[in-house]
Amino acid sequence: MGEQGGSAVFSTCAFTLVPSRDLTETVIEELSQSIIRYGGQVHPQKRDGSLPLAQVTHIISNTIDFPQFTEATSMMIPVVKSKWISASLAKGKQAQIRPFTPDPRMIFSDVVLSCADIPDRDKDAIIGATMAMGGMDSENVTKLTTHICALSMNHKKVLTVQERKHKCKIVLPHWFDDCFKLGKRIDEGPYLLPDPEILRVRPEDHIEPPSSSHLEGATSARPDYLPTPTDSTAGDRPIPTVFNGKKVMLSADLSIRDRLRKILLDLFSSGGGELTDDAEECDWFICHYREGPQYIHASQNGKTVANLSWLYHLITTNEWTSPLRRLLHYPIPRGGIPGFQDKVITVSNYGGEARIYLENLITAAGATYTKTMKADNTHLITARDNSEKCDAARDWNIDMANHLWVEESYAKCEMQSISVSKYTHFPPRTNLGEVIGQTFLDESRLREIYYPGAPVKATAAAKRKRKIMDLADESTIADGPAEGVTIGRQANKDFDVMKDTEAEYTEKTTEVFGVPAPSKRRATEFATPARPRYVRAGKENDTPSTTSSVSRSAKDKALSRLSDIAPDVALYEKEKKRGLKDGHGPWGGKRAADLIEREHLNRRSVSSLTTAEENDAESKVEKRPAKKARPTLPDVEMRVILTGFKRWVDDKSKEDGDRKKLRDMGIMVVQDGQACDYLIAPQLVRTVKFLRNLSKGATVLSSNWIEECLDTKQVPDPAKYILKDKENEKRFGLKLETSIKRAQRNKGKLLWNTPIYCTSSIKNGTESYKAIAEANGAIFMVYAARSGTTIKPTQPDEDEGAPEPVYLLTTATPEEKRLWKKFEDMARKGNMEPRVVASDWLLDVVMHQEVSFDSKYLAKDFFS
After folding, report:
1. How far, in Å, CA of 169 to CA of 111, rounded?
2. What strand order describes the sheet that includes 368-369?
3. How many structural domains compose the chain?
4. Helix count (H) and strand count (E) of the chain?
5. At which of 688, 718, 747 does a domain end?
6. For the segment 77-136, what is each residue's pLDDT rounded down to a tens digit?
7. Do the domain assignments include residue 121?
8. What number of other Cβ atoms are within 10 A of residue 623's Cβ?
9. Contact at 8 Å (CB) between 37 and 96?
10. CA dihedral sign, ordered 739, 741, 744, 749
């Protein structure tokens, strides 16, 4: 089997290898010899080119673009890059599979990270989030380390890299921040120390639009001509072997001329395929629109459904690829995506194929594309937030987003909210054209909307394919940055990130594939599963049964770092808000996020093995040094938001200590914008934080309650600490108790659909007023000198009574005063009553939680 000295690393493994551009036959032969030398088995592809999935435990492939990827996903067979073989041999044991997945949605799968001069808690956040997206953590710098996260070049890890001349990139933490905001991996160039471009060059300086390999052959859903194959020689078109054994049906909605049809027929025939007019017997169904009985029948029966652009791409490259991989390789929806029909969209900062692709994608989504920008445009799609169009969009209150908004709306078959942060994030020195075309279509949404249910007459093969697709859906991550990703299982629980019951495993295996599941084996017997390798259904990360002999410390480590992506990402999202002085980085500020992680780990430890079972497991696996038991945290009983709290001013260490004390008492201090039970304030104030959370109906307590908790380490009755501030109640003309009751009735809809404009140069900035207005359901817009007409002119309707009011918040600078008349004219043309008011009107209305108006708030009187 293997060489002497414990070299049988792959003794329990059976492999099959998938050839591609990056994995040639020569490399496959070399890898196969290494696998056999170290105890493994290699199963070649079948005569028809399919993979022997029933006989293998691992698939070696540098791409997920092979026809049986979905079936392998449903069977939970790990698909790993060829690098996994060499990494396993270097370690002398099988490596983890997550960092070696070929799925491009795991954006850090090639990253081996080591953190330098980063605070411990921030380091944990970056490492956890990176590992959740396929990366690896290295405490020490080695030749395998690819990235060092650092703030300067003075740390010993950085100096070591320079001395040893390792090929390792020294990056600012800003890079990780921007990658996770987008859910895409952008180029590290602008973030590289010692002279990072993001700190040296102005964000508005020119960036050349990059090219993207992800748009190859996919810029249009209806190509104009048949391209020349990439490997053709002068005048010769190579035989397209990708069609071997395939029956292809061309739908009538393609409107193909006889000459082109004959060319395609010759290509199919020469490559071993054939053309058919029977949707029942075809393997591939090619059409233009997602409609019609043939499209539905082919989709429900698990046929490969694609459009002409996909077919041309296969002819060009002679390699199979999934039509769901590129948005414009799948039939388009007739009429577009709901919600886009009345949208008028233009594009900025994209060039070349990226611009053509976006034009076609916008049109396919059902919107109107315009080359130039006018006031009647509804959206601007831009790769950066610096251009003349971007300036005009801000002035004209036109929604501005990057291409991810259009792509993900199209992929999910419904318009996504443009307020999602990743759609409006623009890294300062990156043109987002470099990550265009990386979004996959959501097959579950396609099935739900365009071909729901099961086929009327389904063959056994069709039923099996349908079951495979259902099980593949169960095996994938449902949401988050890694949405749609599947990581195969390994039987060694130290590395296994998919847990479920043996009963479900046996039931699903027998039901779908018609063969019995493998018998139970000890968890420590194999590092990867025994053959055959089939389906494990059920949810991720169920606690393993107490009969498992796996080491608790190894299990906790694997679970805390790898098994639950959502907490990792949530933690990083909170940590990244703690900005550097320059506004780019995720450092400084609030510390609540790490408490969430600790609480998550504590909940896991409650369901762990008993002490006796743990000791038994430790002795069976390997001896490990004793570790102190992780202290448990009480459940969160109260979530509070603080405003105007002076105890922690200029004392960060005291703040961190006090927050921990409160958490130990079941009180979590959360950030503004999150759900809370109590708002803590020293007195009645009109801060953004106070007004936003008052609008949610939060009970307002005196800050003396927090002081009492910290001083006595007891939690007194909150009802005895309700904020009472007679002086400010008289000053603002309200009763706080009444305002809270009104807010609880209003449920954040006090100003529901009320249009409120704000001058762009208003004192204290527009963002504060926007937060307050939108917390109460208002429609908030910025009004500037270049703003066009955003209220459409209408004729008054006698039956509707008095016109609705529209407000403009302003101060009395000369620049703002010039806008008052222009705003009033616009409102009256739209049959609305203009009210140019001081910002105090909004603050008082929200403080009272009652809509009212007095002429004293009119700007001409208020500032006179």
Report:
1. 10
2. 368-369, 344-348, 379-382, 399-401
3. 4
4. 29, 24
5. 747
6. 899 999 999 889 888 889 888 888 898 888 998 899 999 988 887 888 889 889 888 888
7. no
8. 7
9. no
10. negative
